[in-house]
Amino acid sequence: MATLPSLFISHGGPNIVIDDIAARHFLEGIPALIERPKAIVIMSAHFETGGVSVVTDPHPEMIYDFGGFAPELYRMVYPAPGEPKLAERVFSMLDEAGLAPTRCERRGYDHGTWTPLKLAFPEADIPVVQVSIDPDRDARWHYAVGRALAPLRKEGILLIGSGHITHNLRAVITVMRTGRPIDPQIGERFNAFTDWFAEKFAEGDTEALFDWRRKAPFPTDNHPTDEHLMPIFFALGAAGDGAHAERVHASREYGYFAYDSYLFQ
Length: 265
Known about the structure:
This protein has helices at about 20-30, 85-95, 110-120, 140-150, 170-180, 185-205, 205-210, 210-215, 220, 230-240, and strands at about 5-10, 40-50, 55, 100-105, 130-135, 155-165, 245-250, 250-255, 255-260, 260-265. With about 260 residues, it is of the alpha/beta class. The strands form 3 sheets. It has a 6-stranded mixed beta sheet, with helices on both faces. Strand 3 (about 55), helix 2 (about 85-95) and strand 4 form a beta-alpha-beta unit. It is globular. The mean pLDDT is about 95. Keywords: Dioxygenase, Metal-binding, Oxidoreductase, Zinc. Belongs to the DODA-type extradiol aromatic ring-opening dioxygenase family. Pfam families: LigB (PF02900).
């Protein structure tokens, strides 16, 4: 089996599984981008712990970590199995890298995990192991978590970071609730941010990317808090040294919600 790439996906809200938008259709098309994986290791921005934790649950249930959405979303199930043996291996690899992981024996799939996987792999027959972010750690640390797991790609295991390239919910919700057109001046701040990331990935400038809070344009407008951007660094690290980044999807919703997704190999 060929070495798989790693992926960063902007997962959207849970309604992505029912809305007719470009980001949904991109996620549905992931099987055309890569070989079918034997298993998936995914870091979701909605799984936060101190340090990195590995889920060893053999039968994860559902976490409906959202409110005010269509009733049908609360009835959806993604019954993909966990994989305790792989989880223990992930734990060992992180431990050997000096990252002091912990185990999480019971945890379901939050919407950062189940919504994109339901679209990409609807049969739910690929085992999934979840790893957490630490919202108090920086980009370089999350890169190290991915880097420690990079060898798994040679075994047909897909490593995914699930977050969002922009995540200013206040701006998005204002447009949703009021129906007002986006402010062009504010919209340009989002364009500048996503374009900067695309440029730095194209240049292979990981040091600038690690220092995004100081060097990227308008970081606070795009990410009032860090957690939804950290999975992109996990995916970058998971691709190993000298990785090439390809922006495989870019679309917008409500003007401010960017769905950029990247393939690293």
